[in-house]
Write a structure and sequence with these properties.
Trimer_LpxA-like_sf; 25 strands; nucleotide-binding; GlgC_bac; 26% helix; 7-stranded mixed beta sheet; glycogen biosynthesis; alpha/beta; 443 residues
Length: 443
Amino acid sequence: MAKEDVAFNDQLNDALRSRQQPDTAERLSLARQLPRQTVALVLAGGRGSRLQELTDRRAKPAVYFGGKFRIVDFALSNCLNSGIRRIGVLTQYKSHSLLRHLQRGWNFLRGEANEFIDLLPAQQRVNEADWYRGTADAIYQNIDILRSYDPKYILVLAGDHIYKQDYSLMLLDHVENGAKCTVGCIEVPRMEATALGVMAIDEKRRITNFLEKPADPPGMPGKPDRALGSMGIYVFDAEFLYSLLDEDFKDAASQRDFGKDVIPRLVRAGQAFAHPLNLSSVPAASRDNPYWRDVGTVDAFWAANLDLASNLPELNIYDRDWPIWTYQEQLPPAKFTPDEGGRHGEIANVIASGGCIIEGSDLTMSVLFSSVRVHSCCKISETVILPGCVIGRGSRLSRVVIDRGCELPPGTVIGEDPEADAERFHRSPGGIVLVTKEMLDRL
């Protein structure tokens, strides 16, 4: 261990033993040091089946978001902006699109400065019978690599949520609590918590109960319509995590999953603490109502994208103090031209990325990813169009998500006849129509 790390640990231990809260300057100093002793592991191997055909060809973390990003960019950007520059990304399901994105857009860290993003696909390192069987198993199968990094703390992240968080403040909270395990959490509408781990905590934020994806989530005391949901973010003391994973591997009944096995075991032993997002969300001004989205359904994906096109979006992607990094193809600027008759069309609340050409059409409240071509006389509203799509002349689209590379013939109408939409495409419970190339090929 480096001399400065030894001095840091001595300083921190002295503060904890004396039970005195360090002053603001000391706490900021500690928060800056902790990321250097941390390795972040991004769990990016899940399919995300609730996104339907959007994940037929790519893992959920590789799904496009916000006009130019991928979902995984948010967790990775949070790491960099928090000062964590040793990162492993664990992949499994249909990982080619994700790996290509990471290789092209995230290869700028300097190995000679002990910075890296290591790609850790499932390799059957522990035995030759099983791929990753769960989130805990994904880390256990790479435990030899993890030990070689020699971290003091391990930050485990889900790679499929949209939010901004300063992880250094969560690490600081973990150390000041004297915790062995800290779980990131956020208040959500009660029935939205059916896709999350749900917890109860005491006055010291010790987790007293944990239910993984309950069908009927319990409400919070005094807030029966709200639940305290796990964000899928965990901080562990490294040696403590290694011993946990060894125990879990020896348990034949375990499903090798953090939410189903590891965290409930720690809760029963009184060893898990909660860290609410409002203690570390970015920007600090948002902490009364921190932004976090699980865009795991077509409806949620559509709504979160369209929010970015609103007048005052809840998520600020233009914040240069906490930038979202990504791979950016070199493309010309977006261009808006009149149609053959000289009509310009009307555009309002639209995000249009590089390489887009919109010709004499009306667009409102929509998000166009790169290299989208909209031919003349179209009417498009509340629609998310992924890269490389072509919208034929005279098309009308409303409340639609169009997957990458689709070409809609002239005069296509989607979003006006629910029965016709359901026969041709996927129509979600909220009435959002998902269109893919395969669906168009079947017409």
